[in-house]
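ERR on first pass: missing label on line 2. Operator R.T. fixed the label and resubmitted. Corrected input:
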Amino acid sequence: MKIIVVGAGISGCVCAWRLERAGHEVTLLEKGRGVGGRMATRRMEGARIDHGAQFFTARDPRMLELLSHWQKENAVTPWYDHIPGRPDLPTGHRYRGMDGMTSPAKILAREFRVETRFFVEHIYRNESGWSVEEKGGEGRMLKSDHLVLTIPSVQLLDLFQRSEYELDDFTLSRLRSIRHTRCLAVLGIMDRPSMLEHPGTITHPVDEIDWISDNQIKGISEDPSCTIHASDEYSQKFWDAPDPERIPQLLSVTEDQLGVKITSWASHRWGFAKPVVTFGASHWHSSERNLTLAGDGFGGERIENAALSGWDAADSIIL
Ligand SMILES: Cc1cc2nc3c(=O)[nH]c(=O)nc-3n(C[C@H](O)[C@H](O)[C@H](O)COP(=O)(O)OP(=O)(O)OC[C@H]3O[C@@H](n4cnc5c(N)ncnc54)[C@H](O)[C@@H]3O)c2cc1C
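pass 2 clean. output:
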């Protein structure tokens, strides 16, 4: 069967990978330049910076199967299992991508066709199957027998509305109830290595900040660089504020905590960071409509749950 998967986050990549391995002809469409979605890594002035998700867990047997595949490909490595001096935090293995958090998605994406810079503007269904139309760009139009959508719920509902595609009221109301936090992220270049010890992270040093990490100690950057994630509350409050108003406070706390000067920086707004209200099932599937929905808004918070959502979505088509 020809299947189009939309969204190259971990849920879309896992889903496409399993479908391709089951013998389907899969094409994955992604509006961005590469795969990974919120598992995002960026180059800045020679440094490598994870500016979205920081680590993943692997507890479920299916995630352990993915972990083993990534380890064989040398794409992931353990990062830490506890933060020294923080007995209050849960322990357990946290893994990182070998070259940043995009590595695991890149390994999966080697096994199926990927079209990047493809913003899905409209979806249409008729007797012969699905048509998926690109916004602008090359005006690509692809066809498939089955469609899997793994984009965040707000974008999903927008896509349905633009396409005048209707779902039943019960499913729509569950989709509308999905909520994500926001996160204002700062990527910083530091003038010297920080004074943190392994694993190079600080959580919640002040109310305004959820997370600071040192990408050099993490092991993904040769040059000293850091990532700062503001809290949901701070991010909401300063979402539309200009950088000079919202960034200096985050920089100043980080410089104090790390014992460095941040010589240059960039900001990034994650509009859908972590789900706080989910759909209530790991995915949604309709064999009558040949349509399946997945992502962390279904599976729940954490990369592992998003990956398992993609896995379950694939199985609902395969089995
Ligand atoms: C700042 C931050 C920190 C986090 N930290 C952690 C962490 O440390 N550990 C952890 O386990 N989880 C963490 N998370 C959560 C984790 O990143 C997510 O739960 C997970 O990556 C979601 O994967 P996904 O496939 O559901 O969605 P996404 O990764 O968002 O993928 C969806 C994809 O769809 C694409 N898309 C959207 N609309 C369209 C369209 N119309 N056409 C084509 N493509 C489209 C997007 O570009 C995107 O690539 C963090 C998230 C953020 C933002």
